């Protein structure tokens, strides 16, 4: 084998070794970056420590939907319920309404209810404009503050016995995914013997 050929062969392998080293270095950098990004992801929804404690019963609100029918807070053949509280004064809530059909279809194993602080006409408008397929109801400001919703849009997820599994600010698809992931950890039936909190509608 001639010297020029050996030099070319050695140089080629040298380039290959350098490229492999670069790829391995870049791969390590990517893994480090992925770990940093993962650590930056929120581990809880905002205000998840507020509201009804996990494991406690949800409010048994006596309300009617936009069609005048009594609100069903739970439903047979579902894993539980997701109740979203919003307000007519909340600008962020307006960005959630168009997502609700997609969210309810993705998490169809749960029964959904939307509760809006405001007058019934506004609740009707929101449901019709966004073609929300589940029950929507309105609630007065007095009732809203009485039940202590810390901020909006605020969601509860409950098991089939209406025991709270998780809660927090929910305004995006990833937020609702986290709500369901963490909320499904509450086993049903619950061992808790506490009864639902009753609050009469207007």
Automatic annotation (TrEMBL):
InterPro entries: Thioredoxin-like_sf. It comes from the Bacteria. The chain crosses the membrane at residues 6-24. GO terms for molecular function: isomerase activity. Keywords: Isomerase, Membrane, Transmembrane, Transmembrane helix. This is Thiol-disulfide isomerase/thioredoxin. It comes from Paenibacillus shirakamiensis. The lineage of its organism: Bacteria, Bacillati, Bacillota, Bacilli, Bacillales.
